[in-house]
Amino acid sequence: MFSGDDIWDIQPDIINNNGAVSKPTFLDIEQNSDEWIQARAGKLTGSAIAKVMAHFGKEFGDPAKNLAVDIAINHLTGTVIKSGYSNSHMARGHEQEPIARDLYENKYRCFVDNGGFFHNGFTGCSPDGIVGNGIIEIKSVIASTHYKTLQSKSFDAAYKWQIIFNLKETQKDWLDFISFCNDFPIDNQLFVKRVHSSEFESEFKMIDERVNEFESLINKIKNDINANKNR
Q: In the prediction, which pLDDT does 80 show?
């Protein structure tokens, strides 16, 4: 089924690139299911990591502070706070992701397994699929965004921390960023950019530092809430 090119060679995970001994816990569950929502509850996930990494080296911004409150409430009560926010771009992404995955599988003659949910205690992520020792991240985008990606031949900076975080959390060797736009001519609908864990050693350390700071913020918020009981 594979072309023979060694970049598609699927080998079992034995030693991860960042030198960690422990392996993440993988839950083979359907994304957006009730089980998935519960598994993510109270954790810092890939979809929110950009809020935490913003203003690195400085005080957290309001988006990160608000996220910390939501996580603190979950830790204290078990309540899952949902934003309820959705828009046409997000809806298109859910609808077209399977199309992009099929095109990817056909182009590279590979099989994409369920991405499920990986977690390492407080942190976790849900890649859009697993391909042996790698993962994929699919973005179904509007034409102007896809055009910019084709021109730059790389992913938008807005996705940087999610991509790096997902590599770190899964301890996989590589990630294929996939930009898809079905408005484009068929030969240009799919763009794939591969990045490797070995490229991001310094960013992994930055994430560790920032996550520790974020956990401290959550603990402070929980202490503040507990201190105000029965006042």
A: 84
pLDDT in tens, 19-77: 445 899 999 999 999 999 999 999 999 999 999 999 999 999 999 999 999 999 999 99
Distance (Å, whole) CA 152 – CA 154: 5
Q: How far apart are CA 183 and CA 181, in angstroms?
A: 5
DSSP per residue, 101-143? HHHHHHHHT--PBP--EEEETTEEE--SEEETTEEEEEEE--H
Burial profile 88-106: b = 16 or more Cβ within 10 angstroms, e = fewer: eeeebbeebbeebbebbbe
In b/e form, how buried is each residue of 9-21, taking b as 16+ CB within 10 angstroms?
Answer: eeeeeeebbeeee
Per-residue CA distances from 70 to 6, 146, 210 (Å): 44, 33, 18
Q: What's the count of helices (H) and strands (E) in the chain, helices before strands?
A: 7, 8
Measured between alpha carbons, how far is 92 from 25 in angstroms, rounded to an integer? 30
Per-residue pLDDT tens for 124-146? 999 999 999 999 999 999 999 99
Pairing of strands 134-140, 174-180: parallel
**Which span out of 75-89, 113-127, 217-231 was modeled with the highest average pLDDT?**
113-127
Calpha distance 190→211 (Å, rounded): 33
Residue 203 has pLDDT above 70, yes or no: yes
> Within 13 Å and on the Cβ side, how many CA atoms surround 127?
34
CA distance 32 to 127: 12
